[in-house]
Design goal:
Length: about 475
Amino acid sequence: MPKKPSRKTLATKIFVLDTNVLMHDPSSLFRFEEHDVFLPILTLEELDNHKKGMSEIARNARQVSRVLDDMLALAEEIDEGIALDGPSHHLASGRLLLQTEAIGAELPPALPTSKYDNQILAVVIHLQRRYPRRQVTLVSKDINMRIKARSLGLPAEDYFNDKVLEDTDLLYAGGRALPADFWDKHGQGMESWKKDGKTYYRVSGPLCPDFLLNEFLYLEGEPEFTVLVREVAGKKAVLETLTDYSHPKHAVWGISARNREQNFALNLLMNPDIDFVTLLGQAGTGKTLLTLAAGLTQTLEDKRYGEIIMTRVTVPVGEDIGFLPGSEEEKMAPWMGALEDNLEVLTHSDDTAGAFSGDWSKAATHDLMRARIKVKSLNFMRGRTFLNKFLILDEAQNLTPKQMKTLITRAGPGTKVVCLGNIAQIDTPYLTEGSSGLTYVVDRFKGWPHSGHITLQRGERSRLADHAAEIL
């Protein structure tokens, strides 16, 4: 006779996991705290179908299989479930329940029982009848699967545990406006000094504890007051004035900042003390152009970095173009149109050739710039270490947090990593604005002394592009 469930057991829920949840986050088994997790046999079957290959999904499927194998090897009795407390290192206190019996498909006649999704729905119906006093919920990343479940009266949820933020409007912007009365409240007893051409201010007041290291502050007016937070200690903060990259004398490879945020971005990109930079912004805000200009200046003129390495996720917007001939660099060429477009702008903006600035000079400049830029595929990044490189991760919003970690940890001594992206343009399946690797690193790195972030606001491409971005 089965044991009568305790009051505590009745209070906990049973979550039935769809395969895509496990393939999206291999550690999802341990993310449901005190609740029980149920794995249908078809989830394991689908994992088996996806385990081959070198894709991120295949690697995740193999990792889940290894975790389950380790747990089953230590389990004595699986009918009552496997305690998750030990395998999860005390993150979860529920049990893992595996399907150990055949479950008949009790579905409406219109739903074909041959489909895996529909058989998983039948499992949820069966569990609801078996545990009438406990809530049974399907967890799936597949929107259609959740719609089908709800239309059958079954509770269904998306998997939220990988979300960095519930609302991306709360994402750290990298800069903030100071109130008009800032100096009245923070100017008393202020210290000021100059060092290496920069002016520093030590201020104290109620806003200081909220400041983050390397956060930009601005006070609108004529002239505008812009500073970078260098130190925060309790109610005191040290602010540093910025280099004005909007002035032609500070132009970076012939490029000047056209707005406040671009000036902030160049201050981060040109600062050798900052190893990690993230730039967010819509199309046409200048992310790639500013980054390449800063990279070329520090590689060819300042000799701070050996070369520029550029990579991006190869997710096509339309139909894929199939297999491509040639070397790794040639295969990546179709994905690197943005690089060529920006190099063209940088070649024409470079007036260093003076009187000889003709077609020959432009071609020579372009070849010199191209020789110092290497295009690499993400697929071959594991195990590599980049020394003294300027590493650009373009379209970083399409990376998962795990992929982002893999790439950033490639950085060796003297390497600067710059992540560019627009979280409103995610092409990777099951990745959302809240769970993108770019959102993840912006949130985790904020306030670290050697990293900086800025969200670029204004498009600087053309009046046509700006208007299209607004109305379409």
